[in-house]
Amino acid sequence: MEHAHAHTVDVLVIGGGNAALCAALVAREAGASVLLLEAAPRAWRGGNSSHTRNLRCMHDAPQDVLTDRYPEEEFWQDLLKVTGGLTNERLARLAIRESSGCRDWMRKHGVNFQPSLSGTLHLSRTNAFFMGGGKALVNAYYRSAEALGVRIRYASPVDRIELEDGAFRAAWVGNERIAARACVMAAGGFESNREWLREAWGQNENGEWPADNFAIRGTRFNRGVLLKAMIDAGADTVGDPSQSHCVAIDARAPEYDGGICTRIDCVSLGIVVNQHAERFYDEGEDFWPKRYAIWGRLVAQQPGQIGFSIIDAKANGRFMPPVFPGAQADTLEALARQLGIDEAAFVRTVHAYNAACRVGTFDHTIQDDCHTEGLSPAKTHWALPIDTPPFRGYALKPGITFTYLGLKVDEHAAVHFSGQPSPNLFVAGEMMAGNVLGKGYTAGVGMTIGTTFGRIAGAHAAAAARQGATHAHA
What we know:
Layout: H1 2-6, E1 9-14, H2 18-29, E2 34-37, E3 54-56, H3 72-83, H4 89-99, H5 102-108, E4 113-114, E5 127-130, H6 133-148, E6 151-153, E7 160-164, E8 167-173, E9 176-185, H7 194-201, E10 215-216, H8 225-232, E11 237-238, E12 244-250, E13 271-273, H9 288-291, H10 295-300, E14 307-311, E15 327-329, H11 332-339, H12 343-356, E16 357-358, E17 371-372, E18 391-403, E19 406-407, E20 414-417, E21 420-427, H13 445-473
Parallel strand pairs: 1-2, 1-9, 2-6, 9-21, 10-18
Antiparallel strand pairs: 3-5, 4-5, 7-8, 8-9, 11-19, 12-18, 13-14, 14-18, 15-18, 16-17, 20-21
Helix pairs in contact: 2-6, 2-13, 3-4, 4-13, 11-12
């Protein structure tokens, strides 16, 4: 095994998505030799980053594809609201401030931006969209990494890490030992580990295991092996294992990698009912990009983990149409039959909702004054009666994007053991996003965390490797 030491790399990066690539690129730019290990085969490289579309970023003046300004305080307030205060303000503000300087660096590595698409125009102030989406971003970063001399190995899942007093020594891929002076872990959460999801969500009062009915919106390779190994090794953790980016998606979605195209975006334009044809939450609480990520959890708490988004003809053209057409009928009874829910109960629910609607000036671009009165749960904005055929319904189930349980970090992205930072082991992306996201989500913030902390981790890993090399020669 001495042979492995002869080729000790400066910085080992474990993972192959956005955060890992940002870390690898920054470490390489700082002069470190870098080896990146991606668990997936080349064709599936990039993890969940391939499914992303944009980056939420702070800016104090209009910039190319970003309109107006999105100052630090507003970004922080948006994050505070969706997380309900379950966030580390120091680390969140660090990510927010760092996000303002990312895009020039991203462009240098081949990432291009485009104006936001119609249907996402309200995001043009806060989110910069990638030309060609996340797949193009991942490909650009891999091209740049290869050009800079980062060594990349695919189909190389790390199953354990060798530590000595909180310091990284080596990673093991099967029975191959790979030593490095410093390491960045960015290997994703545990969303594709069904057993761990079952354990996290438990059983409900009906004896169901809700996690059995979840689709995984992203990669099948994020099994949380490294996360579990670090927890077992005594690393300090943050977050609740049942919290995740969990969206209500089309119930016909595939088990893995359905990505963005399985989203159903008309929730705020109609009502959502469960299998018993009952409404269970305020569909008009806030704008869809701020609230879409609470609906997966809401649906997960319903019987059978299923819900139905119901709209009428007035909603047409006001949302991004789903990839698969929904059920459609000219009467409420016929729609209920198609969806397999009780006709009488469904008609009662819709009529009660229609009667409670107080229609003012409908405007889906602002929190308008169309609301319900005397109805529980209320619909606080965009409440229009469902009375104009054809009526449409989409079956919904929870879709997990990524889990929030992660490793506790500081401003250097260092992994901590009993409150002490490791001298040479760092973490970025989903494996530490829970420091910033205790619960909830707002569009594009996962990429903000991955990009900013990936770059921070890469810079500090390169510095730690330099220090390690100096000590070795001393």
